[in-house]
Amino acid sequence: MLPDVPVEITKGKTKSAILEIFRASLKLGLTSFGGPIAHLGYFHSEYIKRRGWLDERGYADLVALCQLLPGPASSQVGIGIGTMRAGLLGGIAAWIGFTLPSAIVLMLLALLLHGLPIDSYGWIHGLKIVAVAIVAQAIHSMGMKLASDRSRATVAAAAASVTLLWPTAGSQLLLIAGAAIVGYFVFRKDEAAEASALNMLTSRRTSTLSLILFVLLLALLPIIRAVTSNHYIALMDSFYRSGALVFGGGHVVLPLLEREVVPTGWISSGDFLAGYGAAQAVPGPLFTFASYLGAVDSGVVGAIVATIAIFLPAYLLVVGAMPFWQTLLHHARFRGAVAGINAAVVGILLAAFYDPIWVTAITGAREFALALVLFTMLTYWKLPIWSIIVAGAIGGMLIQPL
């Protein structure tokens, strides 16, 4: 059963719920360093462990859905939780809170400070080690729930191995499809009575309209761009298409964006690479790289257009898919398939924990010692996330070679 998750929110409570979502997601947007896999760990700590907005199984089901959809999975998970708490405006509040800090920082960097060697600072390296502790704790918690028996652990281990040996977005899609087939036949009996409740505050009509709008924008924006020759329409088309067609997370969108902005002459290759480095040094979703690119090209307006355009497909897809996903989850065979997907997601997270998170952060005994201290603080002392982040940043400066 879900811990105090409301099925309905009265009008009198809607405003306070939206503000609560915004505050929670803003805190995550200010502190969630480490990339999309780390974000799922931060979300798990804040939304599941601390606030109890969703149970472990419901969170896993939402993560599984967002792994199947194109777009930034971590942002979609946040949008989904916000939508479940307070409807469409709750999803928007969750997206704004999580996205706004990094979008503003990257826009300012584009306008004023791009080229600064941010990634060489010791405190940045410390934040990468924080991500190691956060993700390790999340994988441990999810693994105990979703891959605790021999069959599921085998699926997770196989998924991790294949992901490490064949690191492409296509391999992840094939893994998820294969795990779904295995789960469909192997896990259906175990999962029949354990369906979680992803409580939705939006109607199926709204969700259907959301999916239709997603398709219409994808089809019509290139036509409008060709007819009008308006630069902002061209920006919206390029970034919307990039956000709509990317599978596999934030890093996979980079080649799509590069093909859209560098050959056209909007952004130089040097500015593109500098922005990519800056995007990895700030908290929040990597998709806010679009804010930097839009600002370099067209200033503040360009940043706003690019940011909205690249995230809009993610919002439309998660709002559109969730009610239908919830219905399917009540069928035993489909639940078995999702159980297989969940086990594979644990394996994919484990592979991502190793590369790029572990290999880029843990380069020696000092880094490992700091990560172990942070993991103990988080898991056993149960200290708040902000204290882990502060300790990691300070520790990163202290262990930086002179």
UniProtKB/TrEMBL annotation:
**A single Gene Ontology molecular function, please?**
chromate transmembrane transporter activity
User: Where are the membrane-spanning stretches?
Assistant: 92-116, 122-143, 155-187, 207-227, 300-325, 337-359, 379-399
Cite the InterPro entries for this sequence: Chr_Tranpt_l_chain (IPR014047), Chromate_transpt (IPR003370)
Q: Name one Pfam family in it.
A: Chromate_transp
Alphabetically sorted, this entry's keywords are:
Cell membrane, Membrane, Transmembrane, Transmembrane helix
What topology does it adopt in the membrane? Multi-pass membrane protein
The UniProt family comment states:
Belongs to the chromate ion transporter (CHR) (TC 2.A.51) family.
Listed PANTHER family: CHROMATE ION TRANSPORTER (EUROFUNG)
The protein depicted here goes by the name Chromate transporter
